[in-house]
């Protein structure tokens, strides 16, 4: 624990075990920066149960997660289920290789351990939206249905809760030498890259621009936005993408490549049909026969760089 800092910041630093294994050096650097700038209680949990106990005993401390997307989602999901998310300030130092820290890119969290740790100390708190499903799960970075193959060039969904309410990101093929997607070949940007954060880009990627990202095999899905039918089982659907934008759930339905997408904003989006899987926050979930996602504006508090 460091000496008391002049700002009086008190932190609970939860260091995910995977971060210690994958990149011990970045983890140590982040811990040292945080301890030098604030009163920091360090937690080294060995599993989800220990994370839950530490977070439950956080008191007035701000919880800082050091780890990948799953580590952050574990804490956010825990606080959501405890109905404490809105009153629990959070910060995050991403540790891991892309795509394991892809959510950081859409939220605007620096990928450098030093920069992210400094943002924890010097940044500003912002309230962000998210999607919550009917099984008490949360989605921070957007989702698509069906999940499709786990191929390195498969585009991702629009991203929920992008900074400043901007529309979500989608995968985009870039020029040679552009940012990678954590395993993709050269010339392919991550779908959460800054160049792919507009609604126009999201729609372009849904339709597979230039044939570079063709839609997966069509499936039959029923899609409703606040009870309004956008697609039914009588017509195959290529992809459904859902994200949180400006306090609502934005849904984009692509019937087939080349068709004009159908898009709408609603408080809740329901997808149903034969057993399907979906990709949320770069993780495949399901199979389910029906799932409803509800938009929660300003649902959680995250410290981000002031710039």
UniProtKB/TrEMBL annotation:
Keywords: Kinase, Transferase
Biased amino acid composition, Low complexity: 159-175
InterPro entries for the chain: ATP-NAD_kinase_N, NAD/diacylglycerol_kinase_sf
Range of residues in the leader sequence: none
Disordered: annotated segments: 148-191
GO molecular function: kinase activity
Compositional bias annotation for Gly residues: 176-187
SUPFAM superfamilies from the UniProt entry: NAD kinase/diacylglycerol kinase-like
The protein, known as: Diacylglycerol kinase
Protein species of origin: Streptomyces triculaminicus
Source taxonomy: Bacteria, Bacillati, Actinomycetota, Actinomycetes, Kitasatosporales
């Amino acid at each position: 624990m460091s000496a008391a800092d002049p700002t009086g910041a008190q932190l609970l630093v939860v260091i995910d075990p995977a971060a210690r294994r994958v990149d011990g050096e970045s983890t140590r650097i982040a811990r040292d920066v945080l301890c030098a700038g604030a009163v920091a209680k360090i937690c080294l949990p060995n599993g989800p149960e220990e994370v839950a106990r530490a977070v439950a005993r956080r008191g007035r401390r701000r919880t800082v997660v050091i780890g990948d997307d799953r580590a952050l989602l574990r804490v956010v999901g825990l606080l959501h289920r405890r109905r404490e998310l809105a009153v629990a300030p959070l910060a995050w130092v991403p540790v891991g290789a892309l795509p394991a820290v892809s959510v950081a890119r859409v939220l605007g969290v620096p990928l450098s351990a030093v920069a992210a740790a400094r943002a924890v100390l010097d940044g500003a708190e912002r309230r962000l939206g998210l999607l919550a499903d009917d099984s008490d799960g949360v989605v921070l970075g957007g989702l698509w249905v069906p999940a499709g193959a786990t191929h390195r060039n498969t585009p991702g969904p629009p991203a929920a809760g992008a900074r400043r309410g901007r529309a979500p990101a989608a995968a985009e093929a870039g020029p040679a030498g552009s940012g990678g997607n954590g395993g993709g070949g050269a010339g392919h940007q991550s779908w959460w890259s800054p160049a792919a954060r507009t609604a126009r880009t999201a729609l372009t990627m849904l339709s597979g621009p230039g044939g570079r990202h063709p839609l997966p095999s069509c499936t039959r899905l029923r899609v409703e936005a606040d009870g309004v039918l956008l697609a039914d089982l009588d017509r195959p659907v290529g992809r459904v993408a859902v994200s949180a934008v400006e306090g609502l759930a934005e849904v984009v339905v692509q019937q087939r490549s080349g068709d004009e997408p159908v898009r709408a904003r609603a408080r809740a989006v329901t997808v149903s049909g034969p057993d399907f899987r979906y990709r949320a926050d770069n993780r495949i979930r399901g199979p389910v026969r029906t799932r409803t996602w509800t938009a929660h504006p300003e649902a959680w508090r995250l410290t981000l760089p002031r710039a």
